Amino acid sequence: xxxxxxxxxxxxxxVLPSTIHFYTQEGLLKESRRTKGGYRLYDEKKASQQIKRxxxxxxxxxxxxxxxxxLI
Length: 72
Prior knowledge:
This protein is an alpha+beta fold. Helix content is 56%, strand content 12%.
């Protein structure tokens, strides 16, 4: 299972790294582990799918972060 850093994940799904930080802080996205240097690592497939789901709910369904939290 490949793990990637925030910047790599952000590039892959087309969001800013700050968006990933925000989703993590809000409990919408979970880091898988950390490196010895403290970098957050995310499961590439799971995190990509979760971010796409959050963005779809936010943009297409026009749900708020609070509403999305309740669904997830």
